[in-house]
Amino acid sequence: MTLPSGSFDPAKTTSLFWSVYPSVMLPMYMAVQDQTIVASALPGIAASLGDVEHVSWVVVAYLVAATVAAPVYGYLGDVFGRRKLLFFALGLFMASSVMCSLAPDIATLAAARALQGLGGGGLMALSQALIGEIVPPRMRGHYQGYLATVATVAAVLGPVVGGLMTQSFGWRSIFLFNAPMVAIAALLVFRIPQKPGARREGFSFDAPGLAYFVCFIVPVLIALEQARRIDAGTAPFIVALLALGAAALVLLLRREKRAASPLLPLDMLRQTAIWKANCLGVCHGAALTPLVAFLPIYFRVAHGASASETGLLLLPISVFIGLGSILTGRLVTRTGWTMIWPTIGLACAAPLFALFAFSLTSLSLRNLMIIVSAASFFIGSVMAVVQVTVQTEAGRKFIGSAAGSVQFSRTVGAAFGTAAMSSVLFATLSASDPEAASLFAQVVDYGPRSLDGLDAARRAVVEGEIAGAFRAAFLLVAGFVAMGFALAATNPSRRVK
After folding, report:
1. In this predicted model, what pLDDT tens digit does every residue of 131-145 receive, in sequence order?
2. Distance between CA atoms of 434 and 423, rounded to whole angstroms?
3. Which fold has domain 1-200?
């Protein structure tokens, strides 16, 4: 069932919602949750398999592979159709999940996680593109708002679920749990109508473009991951990776200008409405992901919150982002206005995040959570509008590439924002007290008990310095949100019919 563009019949809208949304919601949830679910399981994985120095690759491998995969699935979905590719991505995701659960060592687990990321990137990009394929433009905000909510809830709940399952059943259970979920998702995908792709005449797969794209993305994401550690010894390695990524980007752009069937349709990406919307997605990822990653650390250090308490403290963020996303989606559907909502939302969120940063040491934990929850509600106005804008401006022929570009932009923003926030934290501490920076690194790895050996006076000084560093880091979040506001306010795409 589809509705004509611009029509809004509540009864038919409800029917269409229940026929489409469950089929794309579960694949999206699984893919996003598996980005973060292993975070709290890493200590258990390291204890079981050893090789503590390389255990972070279990996270990095998935992130890199999913980032590479999202635009590729969007590209192929435009040509060959999306439903069959979604089945392929589900199969790959399930097989690799089983491989992860059976991995005998870190290297095998990281390789299996990379395969899982290749499936997960497809689940994310294809779920978004299927909304654009089936749902008329005016109604997409309604659906994208719910999908944005699912993605946020999955990202926030991932570490909580991973910790609980690891504690109760062991770390391998977090991967085995995917099997029944994939089976249910596959049954739901059968409900999606099969639509053929727009098999472009003279199509040939852009293999050189894919090779250059991989050589661009992989070094850059690894460099950003390494930059989080602020280790002078890794600086030459990071510079070399970034140089390799820059060279590959130049070759990629040169290739895509000449390719008959380019992996990255540059004509589409050069449109002002599309590149500004994608940059808005970068700012959203750069603000939200490090906020979720570093708030628990701050709560543990400054307020003595336990691991379970920090998980509960993150729930209001996911709830209020979800409410903001759902409300924004409904407003887009009912009014047709798009970029006005993130413009208003980010104009409110930026000063709230700044207030949060300046109030870290003067307000109670309860009042701090009220501020960050309000800011989360307003930042929830972004991703649904970004998807609607990019898909609408790209047109039906490039809906998959459009959805893939948004997923790519947000992931790169998340990696960049996390690296930037980590850099600000450690640089601020190192400038004022190198010993405090070293102690903070131990707190990140082992929790507040790392400070137990200090006398009361020295501990109070270190905690104050850490709070000051967090103030600078959370101001960076406010800066990313302010940049997003400028991009939303100047985007020429203002409404959808």
Report:
1. 877 777 777 777 888
2. 14
3. Growth Hormone; Chain: A; (1.20.1250)
